[in-house]
Amino acid sequence: MSRNSARGFAVVSATAVTTVGAVMGVAQAGTAHSTDDAQASAGDATLLADIPVGEQAPVQAAPLARQAETQAVAADAVARKSAEESARQQAAKDARAKRAAAEEKAKKEREAKGIFPLQSSYTVAEVQAMARQIVPSGQFQCFSNIVNHESTWNYLAVNAASGAYGLVQALPGNKMASAGADWRINPATQIKWGLNYMNGRYGSPCGAWSYWQAHGNY
C-alpha cells in the first residue's frame, strides 16, 4: 500500500469512529433522559412495594371496610323501613279487629235487650233471628208455629179481607203501636207485641198455639 493510500484509509476510519461515537452518545443521552423522567414520575407516587410489608394489609382493607360499612348502613335503613311498615299494617289490623269486636259486643248487648237497629228491609232469616232473641227459648217453637200460619214470617203481610197486619196478624194493626211507633216496618216491635199478647191472653205462646190448633185462630 502506498503512503497516500494509507493516509486515506486512516482518515476514513477516523471519520467512521467519530460518527459511531456520536450516534451512540446521542442514543445514550436520550435513554438517560427518558430514564430520569420515569424515575421522577415514580418518585411522586406511593407504590404498594414502597409500603412496609406489615402495613400493606390495612391499606388494602380500608376501601373494603368502607364499602362494607356503606352496605350495612343501607341494609339497616331498608330493614328499619320494612319494620315500620309492618308495624303500621299490624296496628291498622289490630284497630279494625278491635272495632269489629266492639261492634259485635254492642250488637249482642242490644239484641239481649231486644233492641235491634232499624233496617230498610229484613229477610225471613233475620226476622227469625230477632224472634229467637226476644221469645224465651222454651216458647219459641210455639210462637214460630203461629207466625208460620198467620204470615209465613212476612212482617209486611196484610189480610185483604180483615186488614190484620204483620207477623202475628194484629187486628187492627195499629194495636201494635203500644210496643212502638215503628210497628208497620219493624219486625222486632211486632214480635214484642205478639209475645205480650200471647202471654196476656193465653199465658204463653204455647198456650196460644194450643188454642190456635183447636180453633184455627187465636
Report on the architecture of this protein.
With 218 residues, the chain is an all-alpha fold. The chain contains 6 helices and no strands. Helix 3 crosses helix 5, helix 4 crosses helix 6 and helix 5 packs across helix 6. The radius of gyration is 56 Å and the shape is rod-shaped. The N terminus is likely disordered.
Key features?
mainly alpha; single chain; 6 helices; disordered N terminus; 218 residues; 0% strand
Shape, principal axes of CA atoms: rod-shaped
**C-alpha-based Rg, rounded:** 56 Å
Question: What pattern of helices and strands is seen along the backbone?
Answer: HHHHHH
Low-pLDDT ranges: 2-35, 38-42
Most strands sheet: none
How far the N terminus sits from the C terminus, by CA atoms, comes to 171 Å
User: What oligomeric state is this?
Assistant: single chain
The count of DSSP E runs of length 2 or more, i.e. the number of strands, is: 0
Average pLDDT, all residues: 79
Q: Roughly what percent helix?
A: 55-70%
Q: How many separate helices? A: 6
Q: From the helix content, strand content and strand pairing, which structural class follows? A: mainly alpha
Strand content: under 5%
SSE blueprint:
Layout lengths: L2 H42 L8 H60 L11 H11 L5 H12 L35 H16 L2 H11 L3
Helix pairs in contact: 3-5, 4-6, 5-6
Short description:
With 218 residues, the protein is mostly helical. It is built from 6 helices and no strands.
